[in-house]
Amino acid sequence: MQFLYVQKPRILWKQGKVQLAEGMLSEAYTLFSEAFSILQQVTGPMHREVANCCRYLAMVLYHAGDMAGAIIQQHKELIINERCLGLDHPDTAHSYGNMALFYHGLNQTDLALRHMSRALLLLSLSSGPDHPDVAATFINVAMMYQDIGKMNTALRYLQEALKKNERLLGEEHIQTAVCYHALAIAFNCMGAFKLSHQHEKKTYDILVKQLGEEDSRTQDSQNWMKTFKARELQMNAQKQKGQTLDATSAQKAIDILKANPDLLHAFQAAAAAAGGSGSGSSSSSINKSLNAAIAGETLPRGRGVDERAARAAAEVRKKAAARGLLIRPHGVPAQALPPFTQLLDIINSGATLDPVNKEEAGGVNNEANGQSCNDPVDKHKDQTSGQDQAPIGLGKGLKSLDAKKEKAKAKVAA
């Protein structure tokens, strides 16, 4: 009679496995639950077959989306295996690995990685470090690190798993193909679609040899290959489109400079001002580049710098400074320049100045001429002093020299 009670749970257990494989979760759960209740009465709660029923119940609940229930059942299996089989048994290590997967399903990745490290330790004790189960656990650990964005760590685990599988199982084993597929997914997450396609191609070749072209796993691998190839082509097209847009934007910027000579002069003045504190050759080369861009010419590319042109540019700046044309009081830009970031945007996007920024540029010009854009101004004062103001873009010009002469005379008189 007891023999019949022992055989019936095993029959129910086998039927439940078939139902689970076919995706009939409710029927599988009913069969495993019945087997579990019978085994508890016959063998007691602390038995290996009870642990197996708990494991399959956890799997059914996991596929049904009930993570909390799956963890409860898996914890039962873990306790039974620890007490009946011991810590140094492969089934106990697998119990920790399954617990880690269920915790990862609940987005508790830290706790999952803790259980995975425990599983790796027990597998190393029970089976040794060079075992296919260790490589499979490495793949699961890599997937967890991949989900939290630590791609470098994930790649290290996957490469180590690939080495172990190729050494222990061979280069054409299905588990090796699983490693190649995991690497393809990792490279896809990193945006390296070409590497993804290469690794998935190796997966496909292995599956064709082992399973044939008609197998569902082989067809899935082929679909992945098509997906990675399409993404690679899309990325290359975007790169080419970006290069075309850059060339178009540069041409638009040149057209804007041709249509607005004042803007070109502003750039040249800014380059000259920047070169005033540095080397003269840099400002002259910038001016030559701008002039060449406007004229539609290309500059000869040599290793050295034209020293004569640099000296000539330095002499021109000295003469201009002697005349007071480039004197800038209080470090204010001498030209009526719009904000420099806006000028860079014009070059990058080929856009024109919008009216709002033109008003801001006008405010900068007023400040450059000694007048704040936020202060109230007397209209009569503007009308009387408008004739004596310096030209726009040159600051106070020679008036600053007159002010310095008056200060010097006052000191001499004192």
Automatic annotation (TrEMBL):
GO cellular component: cytoplasm
Signal sequence, start to end: none
Keyword Lyase: no
Superkingdom of this protein's organism: Eukaryota
Keywords per UniProt: Initiation factor, Protein biosynthesis, TPR repeat
Region of interest (Disordered), residue spans: 357-414
Protein name as it appears in the record: EUKARYOTIC TRANSLATION INITIATION FACTOR 3 SUBUNIT EIF-3
Protein source organism: Salix purpurea
Lineage, opening ranks: Eukaryota, Viridiplantae, Streptophyta, Embryophyta, Tracheophyta
